[in-house]
Task: structure prediction
Amino acid sequence: MSTIRSKTDSIQEYFHRQYELEEGSAEENINALFSEDVAYHLGEGKTVSRESLARSAAMIRQTPKSERITAVSNFNEDGDLVTFHMHVRFRNPETGALDEMESDHVWRFNGEDKVAEVRMNQGEEAERIFRLNKAGQR
Result:
């Protein structure tokens, strides 16, 4: 008997594997969930690449688990769309200070059950994370 995994389950499993278990590399986990041409919108016409997502995930994983928060909640799944709230705290590698962000997300999955598009309400805050990568913005 095969079970169909919900898109919400896929997202929760990604966060669990990526940040709690730290199984696989950040890049492997990103590549498993996000399509190669994912459009990750930061607002004002800015997007980041899948490679930049992997670098950001690796940066977050460098923060000790005792200081790090990577919490997702308030899921709502409707067809190919999943909305949820995300709270992230990590140590900023440039300043050494803890940096924190909360945002509401809409993730759209494609026909291959990969995330094809991400929109969030806190694009400016998210840009802080990706600015640390310097490269990766398109």
In short: Residues 60 and 90 are 5 Å apart (CA to CA). The longest strand covers residues 98-109.
